[in-house]
Design goal:
Elements (H helix, E strand, L loop, with lengths): L2 E3 L15 H11 L6 E17 L2 E8 L3 E8 L2 E7 L4 H13 L30 H4 L2 H16 L4 E20 L4 E19 L2 E11 L7 H13 L10 E7 L1 H13 L3 H5 L20 E4 L20 E6 L2 E2 L6 H7 L9 E2 L8 E2 L4 E3 L6 H8 L2 E8 L1 H4 L6 E12 L2 E14 H6 L1 E4 L4 E3 L5 E3 L2 E9 L4
Parallel strand pairs: 1-3, 9-16, 15-21
Antiparallel strand pairs: 2-3, 2-4, 2-6, 4-5, 6-7, 7-8, 9-22, 10-11, 10-15, 11-12, 13-14, 16-17, 17-18, 18-22, 19-22, 20-21
Helix pairs in contact: 4-5
């Protein structure tokens, strides 16, 4: 087995250049001081590891160092952007010049400007960086993935493990601008996930298990393997249920995926472009009084927690929906300026990496939980459908129209408990029906890193159309 290294691992490494992200950002600004534009430098330095196993062997191990900087130049409402992984003097000078040159091809926009420094101090979330990600050897990380696979295979009816993955990231980021913004942070995160396949005669069912934390010591790979196996085994013997209207209990992983899709429509960018069912509805009731949803950039345990966003704006907690009432959209500095009326950025100027301009995106999404375990919620519902997994979430959920139509697997809720397994059925609703139909929530909220960063409980929603068998 060979270790694959990302092409960025071979970038031109700087010589005689400051090492910390903020030092690099300041140094780059100094080198651009003669240019006739407002400048913002975003620096990312990090290291990622991913290990995949199959049939008790390490199938692949990838180590990458996604490090570089992006330069945003603004003048007269025009914006130019350029980026580089070459942090040498020549590479940075070339990128600064390219960003300014790109201004000439841009259209002027009166709302385009760099954010000003905040009068608030940057928050200091505790424990964002832990030493274990850097300190554990590659061999140790391989063992974690192998342990998860072995735990799944040890369960009855498990024929194979489709994949077992350990993945981590440690990153340092900084933003500095000629408007006076300066911010720096570092963080670490790791996750393990397993997909197990259960078989009986000619039937096969899959199940997912995972664990996540800021340090490999936080992970329990064996529990993740067992979880994957149990979820796969529970679906053996599944068949379509009757077509009808059901109270549906969404497992917390599926609830997290749906919440992530809904929040795309709460982006001010989508609203301002007329691509959201929530446009013009601030202050209105859009959901059940049981539903409260936050975007919390400071949440302990959240993968997206940081002192600042991709523009150097301090992170905050933004109530999106409170007791069913829509209170806010997500803003970066551009959409806030465009909204007017004193609207401020909510700290949601997010970047995929140094290669991209800041757009509008969620940080940590938090659904306020209810009470009890999943079993308690199922008992309260009495009769209905428990959805454990969903296929086609990317194609079956339309964040513009709000329509949802996805295939699901799970179990009938019968007599207050989980009953017959179900497959080959489709649920159909829309965002407003989903939010308005929330009738109960469990207290089993968990951080789920599979669809961004979401803390969600299992959620019951009434009157969901389910298409299955006719008999």
């Amino acid at each position: 087995m060979s270790v694959e290294r990302s092409p960025e691992d071979k970038r031109h490494r700087p010589t005689g250049v400051p090492r910390s992200p903020l030092q690099i950002a300041r140094w780059a600004l100094d080198r651009g001081c003669h240019l006739e534009a407002d400048l913002e430098v975003y620096v990312q330095r990090g290291r990622t590891v991913e290990v995949k196993t199959f049939q008790g062997e390490v199938e692949a191990a990838t180590v990458a160092e996604p490090s570089g900087l992006g330069v945003r130049a603004v003048r007269g409402g025009r914006v130019g952007y350029a980026f580089t992984a070459d942090l040498s003097t020549a590479g940075v000078d070339r990128t600064l010049a390219e960003a300014v040159a790109n201004l000439e091809a841009a259209d002027a926009d009166p709302f385009m400007r760099l954010p000003e420094p905040s009068s608030e101090r940057y928050p200091v979330p505790a424990g964002l960086w832990r030493p274990g990600v850097a300190g554990m050897s590659l061999e140790g990380k391989m063992r974690l993935a192998l342990e998860a696979e072995a735990a799944a295979l040890a369960s009855p009816d498990i024929e194979s493990v489709e994949t077992s993955v350990y993945s981590d990231e440690e990153a340092g980021t900084a933003v500095a601008s000629t408007s006076g913004v300066e911010a720096e942070a570092e963080s670490s995160f790791c996750v393990g996930y397993v997909v197990a396949l259960a078989g009986r005669e000619d039937e096969k069912q899959s199940g997912l298990g995972f664990c996540a934390g800021r340090d490999p010591g936080d992970l329990d790979p064996e529990a993740a393997g067992r979880e994957a196996a149990e979820r796969a085994r529970a679906l053996l013997g599944a068949r379509p249920c009757r077509t009808g209207s059901y109270t549906v209990v969404f497992d917390r992983e599926i609830a997290a995926a749906l919440v992530t899709s809904i929040v795309q429509a709460l982006s001010a960018d989508s609203v301002q472009k007329g691509r959201s069912v929530f446009a013009g509805r601030l202050g209105e009731t859009v959901g059940s009084t049981l539903l409260t949803l936050l975007d919390d950039g400071l949440a302990a345990g959240g993968m997206a927690t940081s002192p600042f966003d991709g523009e150097g704006v301090p992170q905050r907690t933004t109530p999106l929906v409170e007791a069913g009432v829509l209170l806010s959209y997500l803003h970066n500095s551009y959409t806030a300026a465009k909204a007017g009326d004193g609207t401020l950025s909510t700290g949601n100027g997010m970047r995929g990496s140094y290669r991209s301009l800041p757009g509008v995106g969620a940080t940590n999404l938090v659904v306020r939980p209810g009470e009890g375990a999943l079993a308690d919620l199922v008992a309260r519902v009495g009769e209905g459908l428990y959805v454990q997994d969903a296929a086609g979430l990317h194609s079956g959920v339309n964040p513009i129209s709000g329509e949802i139509s996805v295939g699901v697997t799970g179990r009938l809720i019968q007599g207050g408990g989980l009953g017959d397994p179900v497959r080959e059925v489709t649920i159909a609703c829309d965002f407003l029906q989903l939010l308005g139909g929330v009738c109960d929530l469990a207290g089993d909220a968990r951080w789920i890193p599979l669809h961004g960063s979401v803390q969600a409980p299992s959620i019951a929603v009434r009157d969901i159309a389910v298409s299955g068998s006719v008999s």
